[in-house]
Amino acid sequence: MNLFYYPAACSLADHIALIEAGLPYKLLSIDRDKKTEDGRDFLAINPKGYIPTLETDDGTIMTENQVILAYIAEQSGKLLPEDRVLRWRTFEALAFMSSEIHGAYSPFFRDFPEPEKVRAREKIKKAFAILSDQMGEQAFLVSDEMTIADCYLFWILMAAPKSGVDLPENLHNCFTRMKAMPSVTRALAEEGLG
Ligand SMILES: N[C@@H](CCC(=O)N[C@@H](CS)C(=O)NCC(=O)O)C(=O)O
């Protein structure tokens, strides 16, 4: 399958998940004119114009990070807990990070006025506190086993410095641990991020 991506963007979550899941994939970047690395019009593939976008081997196009991550977990039988409640906690964490943190990063990715950045920082700070409480002393966000929520968490934590919000200690430690994982180092290297 093909994963459309931008280096260091939120598609990194899906890239890490594909590696952890052991599924075959090809990475295809998109240029400023929305042309894909293999010469196609990206907007014809995904009219939303967003990455991540996944193209399965039968040509099905999947969009929205949470859905692509769930698809990767379903295809591989990995990265989702057996326990039903922990499965729902995984999807809950994904939805929370997407709506409360990823959304709040917008003012820092584009140059928004300072008052909007101040409001966004407050929101991000509160959300990090919630994630920090959820993680506690666990190795990963939902339990001691890695899930698709951690794939997304890694990107959320990697992008945090742009917002100027400091990470709580356990989230910072989780980021450091994950950065040393073979799947993460490989994904970063494949995106040219060393
Ligand atoms: N709702 C989408 C949002 C994804 C998103 O915001 N992607 C950004 C990069 S992190 C993007 O592609 N923005 C369009 C652009 O930069 O042209 C999802 O959760 O997958």
What do you see in this structure?
The chain has a 4-stranded mixed β-sheet with strand order 2-1-3-4, with helices on one face. It has 2 domains: 2-77 and 183-190, 3-Layer(aba) Sandwich (Glutaredoxin); 84-181, Glutathione S-transferase Yfyf (Class Pi), Chain A, domain 2, CATH 1.20.1050. The longest helix has 22 residues, at 114-135. The protein has helices at residues 12-21, 42-45, 65-76, 84-102, 106-109, 114-135, 148-163, 169-179, 182-190, and strands at residues 2-5, 26-29, 53-55, 61-63. Helix 1 packs antiparallel against helix 7 (148-163) and helix 7 crosses helix 8 (169-179). With 194 residues, it is α+β, with helices and mostly antiparallel strands. 35% of the residues are buried. Bound molecules: glutathione. Glutathione is lined by residues 9-10, 49-52, 64-65, 98. Residues 9-10, 49-52, 64-65, 98 line the site of glutathione.
Give a short summary of the structure.
With 194 residues, the protein is α+β, with helices and mostly antiparallel strands. The protein contains nine helices and four strands; from the N terminus they run βαβαββααααααα.
Largest sheet: 4 strands, mixed
Fraction of residues in helices? 55-70%
Name of the level-1 CATH class of the largest domain: Mainly Alpha
Total number of distinct structural domains: 2
How would you sum up the global shape?
globular
Number of strands: 4
Q: What separation lies between the terminal Cα atoms?
A: 24 Å
Order of helices and strands: EHEHEEHHHHHHH
Mean pLDDT: 97
Overall radius of gyration: 16 Å
The CATH architecture designation of the largest domain is Up-down Bundle
Q: For the largest sheet, list the strands in their spatial order.
A: 2-1-3-4
Low-confidence spans: pLDDT under 50, at least 5 residues?
none
Q: Based on helices, strands and strand pairing, what is the structural class?
A: alpha+beta
